[in-house]
Amino acid sequence: MKKINIIYWVTTIIIFLMEAVMPAFTSQTELAKEGIRHLGYPEYFGNALVLFKIFGGLLLVIPQVPARIKEWAYVGFAFDFIFASISHFAIDGVNFQSFFPLIFLVILAVSYVYFHKKIKQAPVRILA
Questions:
Q1: Is 126 among the domain residues?
Q2: Which residue among 14, 36, 61, 102 has the highest number of C-beta atoms inside a 10 angstrom radius?
Q3: Is residue 52 a contact partner of residue 77, using CB atoms and an 8 Å limit?
């Protein structure tokens, strides 16, 4: 149980830091805005994406959030990583920037698998 918790929390915190905390602090920088423009997206798309990333990150790290809601956060991040990779492939071709989101997709998948292992091993609570 301890190994499962450690792997789950390490991978989940990595996703939280990279997808919620970092965008929250850097989204209004000129570099971030240029990155969105470079991919051909309007600036408002970047702003909306950051809000969803922050919200999704919080859903993953708050233990009281129901599992079904966490599932939607995992799906949202999976779409984010897949489409970020596709966008970079389409604009920049094959390079490290194109594969970088897929690295985080793997980390997200590990978090997801261990989230379910953690749920299976959690004691059943009976509400009286």
A1: no
A2: 36
A3: no
**pTM for the structure as a whole:** 0.88
How much is the pLDDT for 125? 61
Distances (CA, A) of 20 to 9, 13, 66, 70, 95: 15, 10, 19, 15, 25
Q: How many domains does the chain have?
A: 1
Provide the H-helix boundaries in 62-125: 67-92, 96-121
Q: What's the CA gap between 108 and 94, in Å, rounded?
A: 22
Q: 3-class DSSP state for residue 94?
A: coil
pLDDT digits (tens, 9 = 90+) for 58-82: 999 999 999 999 999 999 999 999 9
The answer to whether 13 and 61 are in contact (CB under 8 A) is yes
> Does 59 fall in a domain?
yes
Residue span of the structural domain in which 82 resides: 2-121
Q: Is residue 127 part of a domain?
A: no
Say if 106 falls within a structural domain.
Answer: yes
